[in-house]
Amino acid sequence: MPPSITRAFRRYHAARVSRTNENGVDRTVSSSNEGLGIPGYAPDGLIACHACDGAHRIVPVPAGGKALCSRCGGLLYRNLPKSLDHSAALYLAAFVLFVLANSFPFVALKYGDRVEQTVLVSSAFALQKAGMPEIGLLVLLTSFLFPLLTICGMLYLLIPLRLGLRPRRMAQVWRFVRAISPWSLIGVFMLGLLVSVVKLQDLASVIPGVAFFAFVGLLVVSTAATASFDPGVLWPRQGPVPKAAAAGSAAGMGYATCHTCDLLVARPDSGRRPWHCPRCGSEMHGLRLPESVSRTWALLSAATLLMIPANLLPVMTVIRFGQGEPNTILSGVVHLAEDGAWPLAALVFFASFVVPITKIGALGLLLVTVQRGSGWRVRDRTLLYRVTEAVGAWSMVDIFLVGILVALVRMDTLATVIPGLGATFFGAAVVLTMLAARAFDPRLMWDRAVHETRGRV
Fold first, then answer.
1. Where in the chain are the domains?
2. Are 456 and 374 in contact (CB under 8 A)?
């Protein structure tokens, strides 16, 4: 980060004060525009929608309220009173529960006098011992390491701010937390555990341990912490003051959104790339994600090819008393239905088959419409993208299910679960679809739609 930007950034945080207006709306502002180092920025300046790039003025909203984009209906920002206090306390509680969840036995499987106990990370190491280290690493990252880093990163940011201090390298830590938080799949892991319990009911008794209840508490508390956090406590909502009323897209007005602190930054007249955000110092590479369409097509094509062996090859083999047959994703759904667990069977079928296939089709549709410059139902397509991005991670339920069963069912000749090659292909396909959704820039749909409309006039 250039020294001048670093000095301006420090002055900005030193000068920041919090004010509450007569309606009880928290308005965090800078005591002077000079503290920002960028004249012309104000608390009632401009903010841009991340989905459609629509430019809007920042206006106060009532406590608990939110501001929505008038073009696509996306969330711009919320007003969460005492967000810093609530989120810091909840993330601290989540850290304690995470430690408990990893310090005691998680689940035990009892068959007669024999008991097999596991800890939370047992599934990852069990997959590694079974000769599938790539899937074991994926399970370890998404169920243990990324949730831990997310919680620790948020505590690193929130606790010093709560004490009136500025954490060092705040922009880098916040950017890292935003990058890994979508890969923190605690809720999906819990769903995989519930499915595995149903599958094991006719084999042995499943005994939840202390860590299991701590993990349930972690799921609830971490969800509440995410819901109570307002990025405005890190980066006060301020933006450039336009010479005229805000209309159209921020890019059309010459502004790009900083993906670290959400500040609108004017594109340099020289056109040099990259340039830096004057508030957090992050590099900015352009008005849109570079090569978004080509990268999304590449990732989506690879995921589509991987889905073929993922559904044809077995994901696991359950051997009971020396006998067993390989199970594919769909045959596992059938077995759940035959055991009478129709709700879980429908849920697994939706998460492991319908969601990946639909996600590939939806992203393909969005890419085609962008390349054709179509203005067809652009608001609905934006909603489709948001839903696709949100539900994609739930396809990981089968991967977690395989890991949990491999870790629990280790009874030699009585019962054993062997992971199959289909799990590797399926895990890779899910990861690629999630990367494809993040590589796609939904603002391109609105850019092309505007161009098409102008061409018709």
1. 3-79+236-279, 84-231+291-456
2. no
